[in-house]
Structures are given as structure tokens and as C-alpha cells.
Design goal:
Radius of gyration: 18 Å
Strand content: 15-25%
Number of strands: 14
Number of helices: 11
Shape: globular
Strand order of the largest sheet: 5-4-3-2-1-12-13-14
Order of helices and strands: EHHEHEEEHEEHHEEHEEHEHEHEH
Distance between the termini: 9 Å
Helix content: 25-40%
């Protein structure tokens, strides 16, 4: 019996055009009608994620920023795990040492030091989701997506250190044109105490507090809802979904998932351009029907 379904967004709930298909929306509605709760689990911040689910009649809850900040369906914060100042200082030191472009995410803002880099990283991400798209067109799409371009520009991320008004929830760094430096920085950060380093694509690394992961966030949310983990389904495609695939009673890998997620999951659905989330939801509904 499945009573709670958690779904990643990019590469999972969203198709190559970064939208939730009508088919997926309808499946979520069917689940809600059968008493199944739905929660989005994403590396995005709330202002990037919530507008894409406005078609739902019953709003979902949100695990955002890889588990650093969790919201109820009423958009009230129910869990908050920022990076410590010491951890954030380590991130800055390592990423600047290797000359990597990175962004800093708080509950309210995305901070960047370069408008040029921000646009081009968003365009590269869009092109990765849709390889047939010309880069020039990807740039046009990037600049037109207002939820992706809400950025605050600063001259140096050191400005954010020791500012009591700022809670750093996540740092995301990008591959750029030097893979050796990227891999060296990732290795160094993985060795640092108190950090969780993962990724949502082959071209980035996402850095959170060690306690801020999708799996523990999902477990805590399920506990708040009095739902045992055996009655939880989690759907994902990439490494930042690994902890929730492990945590849920039923882990589901997208058809486009990386091999590590496919190896962990108990069930594999279609890819994100073939409404894999809807297929997984219907599988959950069939399990519930057979257990009645």
C-alpha cells in the first residue's frame, strides 16, 4: 500500500522542455483522489519549483534544495538545514582555488557573480535535457524562463559570510571547460567534514550540509504525516536522488536514470519524455488496488 509518492523534478517529473506534462498532472490528480499524498523533491529552490506545479488542484509539499528546506503543502517551512559558516567558507576556498563558477542558494535568493555565466549555464542545462536544440535557441529559452533567471548578482560570495540575515542552503558549482579542476575540487570537498556533495547532472556538483539530503528529509516528512517508509514511493533519475531511493519502501528509477539509480531501484519506469512519473503512479495505484 503506497500512501506517499516523492518525485524528483529535472529529468523526472519535468520533460525535455522543463514542463510537467498534462499526463503527469492527471496521474498526480488520480493519486490524490485515492488518498495518496504527493511531494516534490528537488535541488531547486521553491520559487523555481512551485510555479511549475500550479496546474494541480491540490498543491504538493516540497523538499527543496536537496533536502535543506522542506515545505508543507501550505508552503510553510517544516525543516531547515543550512550550511554552517565554516562549511560555506570551505566551499568558497576550494571552488575559488580551482577557478570554478558557482552559485549560492538561500531560501530567498540565488546569488551569482556573473550574469554571463548564469545565462550560459542555464542554456547548457536546457540543451542537455534536449540535445537536438541548437545552443542559440537554448540561450533564448534560458533568458525567457523567468523562474530560472531570478538571480541576485554580487561581486564576491565572501560578502555572504557571517551575515546573520543570510542562510546558505546550497552551493552549486559547474563543470566549465576544465574537467580535471572540477574533479579535483569535487574530491577535495567530498573529503571535507560536514558536507554532502552530489549532482543533478554530469555537469554540476551540489553541496549541502551533510544532514541536508532528500532521503532524510523524506523520512522526516513521512514521519510527520504518520506514514511508514514501507508505504512511500520515491522516483528519481540522478545522484542527488540516491538517498531517497534508498529510504523509500519502493524506489523507482526513470528510464533515463544514471546506472547507480537503476541498480538501487526496485522498479523502472519510462523516461521523462514518455511520462515515466505517470506510469510509476499508475503502478502504485495498481499495487494499492491488489492489496485491498
Amino acid at each position: 500500500m503506497i500512501k506517499l509518492i516523492a518525485s524528483d523534478m529535472d529529468g523526472t517529473l519535468l520533460n525535455q522542455n522543463s514542463v510537467v506534462s498534462d499526463t503527469n498532472i492527471a496521474a498526480i490528480e488520480r493519486a490524490n483522489q485515492q488518498g495518496i499524498q504527493f511531494i516534490v523533491a528537488t535541488g531547486r529552490k521553491l520559487s523555481e519549483a512551485q510555479p511549475l506545479l500550479q496546474a494541480l488542484k491540490q498543491p504538493p509539499a516540497f523538499i527543496t534544495l536537496n533536502g535543506a528546506l522542506v515545505y508543507s503543502k501550505h508552503l510553510q517551512p517544516v525543516l531547515r538545514i543550512p550550511l554552517t559558516n565554516a562549511n560555506f567558507a570551505t566551499c568558497i576556498q576550494v571552488l575559488q582555488k580551482y577557478d570554478l563558477y558557482f552559485e549560492v542558494l538561500t531560501p530567498e535568493h540565488i546569488y551569482s557573480t556573473s550574469h554571463y555565466q548564469r545565462i550560459h549555464q542555464v542554456a547548457a542545462f536546457i540543451q542537455q535535457l534536449n540535445p537536438s536544440l541548437l545552443y542559440k535557441k537554448a540561450l533564448e529559452v534560458a533568458t525567457s524562463r523567468t523562474e530560472l533567471m531570478q538571480v541576485t548578482y554580487i561581486s564576491n560570495p565572501q560578502e555572504l559570510l557571517n551575515n546573520p540575515q543570510v542562510s546558505i542552503m546550497k552551493v552549486i558549482a559547474y563543470l566549465g571547460d576544465n574537467k580535471t579542476k572540477f574533479l579535483a575540487a569535487r574530491h577535495e570537498l567530498q573529503q571535507a567534514a560536514g558536507l554532502n556533495v552530489t549532482s543533478s547532472s554530469a555537469n554540476n556538483m551540489e553541496i549541502n550540509n551533510q544532514q541536508a539530503q532528500k532521503g532524510p528529509a523524506l523520512a522526516q516528512f513521512a514521519q510527520q504525516q504518520k506514514i511508514p517508509l514501507t508505504q512511500v514511493m520515491a522516483i528519481g533519475d540522478n545522484l542527488n536522488d540516491m538517498s531517497m531511493i534508498k529510504t523509500a519502501g519502493l524506489g523507482v528509477a526513470m528510464g533515463n536514470a544514471v546506472p547507480q539509480i537503476k541498480q538501487l531501484a526496485q522498479y523502472q519506469t519510462a523516461d521523462n519524455n514518455q511520462n515515466g512519473v505517470a506510469q510509476a503512479i499508475d503502478y502504485a495505484l495498481s499495487l494499492n488496488a491488489s492489496s485491498e
